Each structure stands twice: as C-alpha cells, then as structure tokens.
C-alpha cells in the first residue's frame, strides 16, 4: 500500500499526477472493501442490503448540495455551466426526477419505507458524520481541492460494473427496475470525471497544489471507505447497531 503524503514532492508532470491519482483509486477505492465483496458474492442478507441502501441515501442526497457549494465559489461561467449538470443529474428538473429519486426507488424496492429513508434519522451516526465531513470539505477547502475530491468518479464505473450484474444474479428480490439509478451513472460519471480531471491537471501547477489534489482524492476515498466500515461494524458479525439506528428484521 502506497503512502501518498509526499507523492508530489519535487513536482510532477500532468501525466505523472494523473498516474498517482489513478493509483490512489487502485489502492483505496471502496470496491476493495470487504462489505462490497460480500455484496457481489451474494452473501448479504436482505436486511444488510436495506441498511446499505438507507445509509447510502444520505450520501446521494448531499451530492447536489456539495456541488452547489462548488458552483457558488466558481467565477468562470464555463465551469459553472459544466458543473451544474451534476446537480441536474441528481435533482432532475423538479427535484424528484433525477438520481436521488432513483436511489429512493432502489431503497423502497428493497422494502424500506420512503419516509424513513428521506428522513435519514435511522442512518448510522458514522454515516452522517462522514457525509457532513464531505460537505464541509467542499465548502471550506479550496475550489481545486473540492473539485479533486470528486475524482472518485474515475473509478465508479468499475464498481457499478461489478455491483449491478452481481445483485441481479444473486438476489432474487432485486430487479433491473430497482437498479434504475445505475443505468445512467457510468456515462454521467465518466463525463464528470474527465472534466474534473482536466481541471485538476491544469490548475495543480505547483507541487503544493498537486499534493492538495492527491490528498483531496485520498480524503474522499476515506469517506467512502469509512461508510462501509460503519456498515460492517453495525450489520456484520459484530452486530453493534448504535441506538436509534435502523434495525433490520432479517439478520440471517
């Protein structure tokens, strides 16, 4: 496992910086997490799948909010025109016709109550802390760092490509309609990731800014990893579900 803390020491070319960023994903993206491995192997109970969908909703719901914070700080109209597509993808034209609504459909398709999901009160405390940290990062750090934190989208088509076929094949209660959220995401994520990558490579023009970009991507990978750690702790063999958090009926 690489230590990325001094990866930009002495400065990197654009190609070298991109190679480091892709290495971060190869080593730290959450498709490597044991919870993901359990999911794609068909080993999760329905209750565990519900817990994943309910907690992940918190993350999905914050995405357009963090993107709005990025938009508010961007002075370039061309940047804003491109970045606002992300909000449109998740909110849709009326707030409930985009990716967030499709994730809610996934959650209710797994048997969850829509109000419980939207309210987020049954989510794990660690999930809420992680999501809040992501929003705060995109609000308080530099625009370059906020953009770089989105570069996990470089790797999301990989995890979707693993997750969707496995869920359809191994869980008889999961249908293509349930997983409608994932249909458009690989194309959207690839589009968004290429724009963010180009921006980061162009504007990370000093070793310090290059390191900030790398650190931002490591931070985002840590956020996604921590969310799965929390699910594993609460709904795995340990079964340490915090007070007030979702308690699935199906614990087998």
Automatic annotation (TrEMBL):
EC number(s) stated in the UniProt entry for this protein: 1.3.3.11
One of the record's GO molecular function terms: pyrroloquinoline-quinone synthase activity
Alphabetic keyword roster: Oxidoreductase, PQQ biosynthesis
Provenance organism: Borborobacter arsenicus
Catalytic activity: 6-(2-amino-2-carboxyethyl)-7,8-dioxo-1,2,3,4,7,8-hexahydroquinoline-2,4-dicarboxylate + 3 O2 = pyrroloquinoline quinone + 2 H2O2 + 2 H2O + H(+)
Gene, per the UniProt record: pqqC
Family recorded in the similarity comment: Belongs to the PqqC family.
A Pfam family: TENA_THI-4
Name the UniProt record assigns to this protein: Pyrroloquinoline-quinone synthase
